[in-house]
C-alpha cells in the first residue's frame, strides 16, 4: 500500500488578509480571505475547510498546523489588551513612565511618547531588594504583596506583571510573589520578568513583561477557541505557533509568552525569502514583504536573516526608532513601514500628499472593495494604474470597482485626473519603502547595492521592480506562491526556542565555571521547550554572547564555539569581537576591556519533512495572452503592455518588459527597464537591462 502524503497547513492572519496554504506531498493549495478581526479564527477555519475540500482531504488527514498571527501586535498597538497591574520593587513603580529618558527627536518641543500599558494607579511597589549580583539586601514583605493583590482585585485587574529590581540575577522574590498571587487570586494571569525577559536594563525588562501580561489573557482565550474549533472540525494534528525569532513552538509556550508572537508573520516571510535565496544561489538578499497593512524589509546574508534582541511596537511617530514600546525579545530584524495595499492617502497639515501609516484593513477595506471604505488607498491607486485586474483580485473572490477608486481620489487631486493622483500615491509609497531600506542598511552597517530582492506578499510584486529601480538593485525574484509567502515560510520553519540571560563578565577574566553553569541551565530550558514539539528529533544548538567595550551603551553579537567554554576560548572570543566590531564600525576603541552582558542559547529541530511543488518544464515559450493599458511609473505615460498568466509559464520561458504577470494571489509588474525569465524553481527572475 502506498504511504499517504503528509498534509500540512500554514496559516498567516494579517491585518487585511488571512493567508492559508495546504501542502499534500508535492502539491500545494492556497487561499486568501479577508481577516475577521472580531474572531480571527473564523476566517482561518473557513479557509482551511475550503482547502481541504479542494485537495480532496479530510480534516483527520492533517498532520501539522503552523499558525502566525497579528493578534498580540494589534492588541498592543490598538490598546485592546487585558486590564493589567504591575507589582514591582518599592520606589520603582514609575520606571514604565520614565523610560530610559532618551528623546527620539531632540528638536521636537511637543514630543509625545507612548503611554505605558499599565496606568499609575495599577502600578504598586512592595518592600524588597536584590542586588545586581543576586544577593538579597531586603527580604520580600509578603504582607505587602497580599495587600497589593487585594488592591488589584478591587481595581478589576485581569493580569499582573511582576518585575522586581535585578530579578534576572536572582528570581526568588518574583517566584514567591507569583506563588502568593496564584494562591490568592487564581483568576488572574501572571507574568514574571525573570521568565519573560531575564536580562539587564530595567525599563526594557519591565516594558516587555508588562506587554506579555497585557496580551496574555487575549491570546490564551484565542488559542483555546482555535483548538476547540479545530477539534470540532475533526482536526487532531498538533498546532504550532510561529515566533518572532523565526522558529515555531507549542501552544503551551505561546500561552506563557505571547509577547514572542509579535512579528510572527513577517518572520515567516523572512524564512521563505532565505529559502528561495539559498535554492537560487543568491547569498545577499533584500526580503521585501508588502501586504494589505504594512510593508517589511529584511536583509539576509548567506541564507540567514539578520536578527535582533530588541523590538519596538506601537510607535507614535511615523515608525521612528525610539518612539514605541520597547520589547526585549528575539526577533528577525526588519524595518516595518505603514505602506501596505490598504494604506490611506491624505493631505497633511501643510497640504502635501501623504500615504499611511493608517490602513483601511479588511473592515471596511479600500474604497474599491465596495464595503464602505471612502479613503483612497494604495490598492485603489494600483487598480486605476492598470496593475490589478478587478475581476481576478484575491483569486477572483473579491470583485473590485474602479469607479469607487476614482471617486476616492477626487478630494486629493485638486482637479487632477484620478490616474495622476494614483500615480503620485504609488510613487510616494515606493519612495518611502526605498528610503526605509536605505536607512535600515546604513544602521546595520551593510551595503544594499548588488543585492537580490525577493518579493512576496499580496502587494509586493506590484511594487518590487519600481522599488528596486530606486535602490539601484538589478535583480528581483518573485517566487511561486509569493502572494502567500509568509504562510509557506511557516511550513519551512524549525521548531526552535531561544533563552537569554544576563551575566556580566570581562573577556580575559571569565569566570568559566559560572558561565558554563549558566549556559547549561539555558540549554536545558531550551531543550525542554523544543522537546514538546520535536520529541527525539535531531537538534542543533548555537550559543551567542552580546559584548561591548566597557562603558559603551550597546552590544554586538559574537558566536560562541559551543555551549561549554574552555579557558583557551577567552582569546578567541576577544578576537571575534574585535573583528565584528571593526567590520561594523570601521575601527576599534584601543586599550578598553571587552565585557559580555548577555548570553543566548538557541536549540532548533526541523519540523516534519516537506516537498516543494515542482514546475513543469517548458515545451515552448508562452505567448502573451492579452494586452492591458498600463501607466508607466517613470514617465506617467499610458501604453498597451503584454499580459502573461503565471500558471502558463514554465522554466526557461523568457519575456521582455513592460509586462504584467497575473496569478491567483498577486500580480507582478515588470517595467520597461527589466526583462524576465522563469528559473528551474518556477520563480520569476527579473533582471535590469544593461544601460537602463
Tally the helices: what do you get? Answer: 16
* Overall geometric form: globular
Contiguous runs where pLDDT drops below 50 for at least 5 residues: 616-621
Coarse structural class:
alpha+beta
- Write down how many β-strands occur, each being a DSSP E stretch of 2 or more residues: 35
Structurally, the number of domains stands at 5
Q: What profile does the largest beta sheet have?
A: 9 strands, mixed
CATH architecture of the largest domain: 3-Layer(aba) Sandwich
Assess the beta-strand content as a share of residues: 25-35%
Q: For the terminal residues, how far apart are their CA atoms?
A: 58 Å
Task: Give the proportion of residues in helices.
Answer: 25-40%
Mean pLDDT: 89
Radius of gyration: 26 Å
CATH topology of the largest domain: Rossmann fold
> What is the CATH class designation of the largest domain?
Alpha Beta
